[in-house]
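[Discussion] Sanity-checking designs against the backbone

I'm trying to build intuition for which residues belong where. Below is a C-alpha coordinate string of 139 positions. I'd appreciate it if someone posts a full sequence so I can compare it with mine line by line.
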Protein backbone atom coordinates (compact mmCIF):
# COMPACT_ATOMS: atom_id res chain seq x y z
CA UNK A 1 0.00 0.00 0.00
CA UNK A 2 1.31 3.44 -0.95
CA UNK A 3 1.78 5.88 1.92
CA UNK A 4 -0.10 9.17 1.47
CA UNK A 5 2.02 12.27 1.95
CA UNK A 6 0.47 14.73 4.35
CA UNK A 7 -0.76 17.93 2.77
CA UNK A 8 -0.66 20.22 5.80
CA UNK A 9 -1.84 20.58 9.36
CA UNK A 10 -5.28 21.58 10.60
CA UNK A 11 -5.68 22.91 14.14
CA UNK A 12 -9.15 22.05 15.43
CA UNK A 13 -10.93 23.92 18.22
CA UNK A 14 -14.17 22.93 19.94
CA UNK A 15 -15.26 20.24 17.50
CA UNK A 16 -15.33 17.52 20.16
CA UNK A 17 -18.90 16.44 20.78
CA UNK A 18 -20.33 18.19 17.72
CA UNK A 19 -22.66 16.40 15.33
CA UNK A 20 -19.97 16.52 12.64
CA UNK A 21 -16.85 15.64 14.68
CA UNK A 22 -16.45 12.09 13.33
CA UNK A 23 -17.33 13.07 9.76
CA UNK A 24 -14.84 15.97 9.86
CA UNK A 25 -11.98 13.82 11.15
CA UNK A 26 -12.67 11.10 8.56
CA UNK A 27 -12.72 13.74 5.83
CA UNK A 28 -9.41 15.26 6.96
CA UNK A 29 -7.71 11.86 7.12
CA UNK A 30 -9.11 10.85 3.72
CA UNK A 31 -7.79 14.06 2.17
CA UNK A 32 -4.35 13.52 3.72
CA UNK A 33 -4.24 16.28 6.33
CA UNK A 34 -2.63 16.06 9.74
CA UNK A 35 -4.94 17.31 12.48
CA UNK A 36 -4.32 18.50 15.99
CA UNK A 37 -7.06 19.15 18.53
CA UNK A 38 -6.30 22.26 20.57
CA UNK A 39 -7.59 22.07 24.13
CA UNK A 40 -8.49 25.20 26.14
CA UNK A 41 -5.38 24.94 28.33
CA UNK A 42 -3.32 25.47 25.15
CA UNK A 43 -5.10 28.66 24.01
CA UNK A 44 -2.30 30.98 25.21
CA UNK A 45 0.43 29.18 23.24
CA UNK A 46 1.70 30.82 20.03
CA UNK A 47 -0.04 29.51 16.92
CA UNK A 48 3.36 28.64 15.45
CA UNK A 49 4.04 26.36 18.41
CA UNK A 50 0.60 24.74 18.15
CA UNK A 51 1.23 24.08 14.44
CA UNK A 52 4.43 22.23 15.37
CA UNK A 53 6.97 24.70 14.03
CA UNK A 54 10.34 23.94 15.61
CA UNK A 55 11.38 27.58 16.02
CA UNK A 56 8.51 28.15 18.47
CA UNK A 57 8.35 26.98 22.06
CA UNK A 58 5.65 26.81 24.70
CA UNK A 59 5.00 29.79 26.93
CA UNK A 60 4.35 29.79 30.66
CA UNK A 61 1.24 31.97 30.38
CA UNK A 62 -1.88 30.57 32.02
CA UNK A 63 -5.29 30.76 30.37
CA UNK A 64 -7.84 32.94 32.13
CA UNK A 65 -11.17 31.11 32.15
CA UNK A 66 -12.94 34.35 31.16
CA UNK A 67 -11.05 34.26 27.85
CA UNK A 68 -12.17 30.78 26.82
CA UNK A 69 -14.37 30.38 23.77
CA UNK A 70 -16.67 27.56 22.72
CA UNK A 71 -17.24 28.19 19.01
CA UNK A 72 -15.58 25.74 16.63
CA UNK A 73 -12.57 27.13 14.79
CA UNK A 74 -10.03 25.79 12.29
CA UNK A 75 -6.51 27.02 11.53
CA UNK A 76 -4.72 25.80 8.39
CA UNK A 77 -0.94 25.48 8.13
CA UNK A 78 1.17 24.32 5.22
CA UNK A 79 -1.65 23.84 2.72
CA UNK A 80 -1.21 24.79 -0.91
CA UNK A 81 -3.96 26.94 -2.43
CA UNK A 82 -5.14 23.88 -4.34
CA UNK A 83 -5.38 21.75 -1.18
CA UNK A 84 -7.11 24.53 0.74
CA UNK A 85 -9.67 25.03 -2.05
CA UNK A 86 -10.26 21.29 -2.21
CA UNK A 87 -10.75 21.05 1.55
CA UNK A 88 -13.18 23.98 1.66
CA UNK A 89 -15.16 22.47 -1.21
CA UNK A 90 -15.36 19.10 0.58
CA UNK A 91 -16.46 20.77 3.84
CA UNK A 92 -19.30 22.55 2.00
CA UNK A 93 -20.27 19.34 0.21
CA UNK A 94 -20.38 17.48 3.53
CA UNK A 95 -22.47 20.23 5.14
CA UNK A 96 -19.82 20.94 7.78
CA UNK A 97 -20.09 24.61 8.64
CA UNK A 98 -17.32 26.16 10.71
CA UNK A 99 -17.43 29.93 10.11
CA UNK A 100 -14.23 30.72 12.03
CA UNK A 101 -11.33 29.66 9.81
CA UNK A 102 -7.86 31.10 9.29
CA UNK A 103 -4.62 30.36 7.50
CA UNK A 104 -1.45 30.58 9.59
CA UNK A 105 0.56 33.51 8.22
CA UNK A 106 3.62 35.55 9.15
CA UNK A 107 1.16 38.15 10.45
CA UNK A 108 -0.62 35.86 12.94
CA UNK A 109 2.00 33.18 13.68
CA UNK A 110 2.94 34.79 17.03
CA UNK A 111 -0.68 35.28 18.12
CA UNK A 112 -2.31 32.96 20.59
CA UNK A 113 -5.64 31.25 19.90
CA UNK A 114 -7.61 33.78 21.94
CA UNK A 115 -6.31 36.74 19.93
CA UNK A 116 -7.06 34.89 16.68
CA UNK A 117 -10.54 33.97 17.89
CA UNK A 118 -11.35 37.59 18.76
CA UNK A 119 -10.10 38.79 15.37
CA UNK A 120 -12.07 36.14 13.46
CA UNK A 121 -15.22 36.75 15.52
CA UNK A 122 -15.14 40.49 14.78
CA UNK A 123 -14.56 39.79 11.11
CA UNK A 124 -17.40 37.26 11.02
CA UNK A 125 -19.80 39.73 12.66
CA UNK A 126 -18.92 42.37 10.06
CA UNK A 127 -19.62 39.89 7.25
CA UNK A 128 -22.98 39.03 8.82
CA UNK A 129 -23.86 42.75 8.99
CA UNK A 130 -22.93 43.19 5.31
CA UNK A 131 -25.02 40.14 4.34
CA UNK A 132 -28.01 41.50 6.29
CA UNK A 133 -27.62 44.90 4.62
CA UNK A 134 -27.44 43.26 1.18
CA UNK A 135 -30.60 41.28 1.92
CA UNK A 136 -32.37 44.47 3.01
CA UNK A 137 -31.31 46.26 -0.18
CA UNK A 138 -32.63 43.40 -2.35
CA UNK A 139 -36.15 43.81 -0.93
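Best answer:
Here's mine. Compare freely.
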Amino acid sequence: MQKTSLKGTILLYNVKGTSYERQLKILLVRLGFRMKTIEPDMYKQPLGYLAGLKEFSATEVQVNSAELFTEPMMVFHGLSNMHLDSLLKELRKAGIRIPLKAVLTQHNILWDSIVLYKELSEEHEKFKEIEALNETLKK
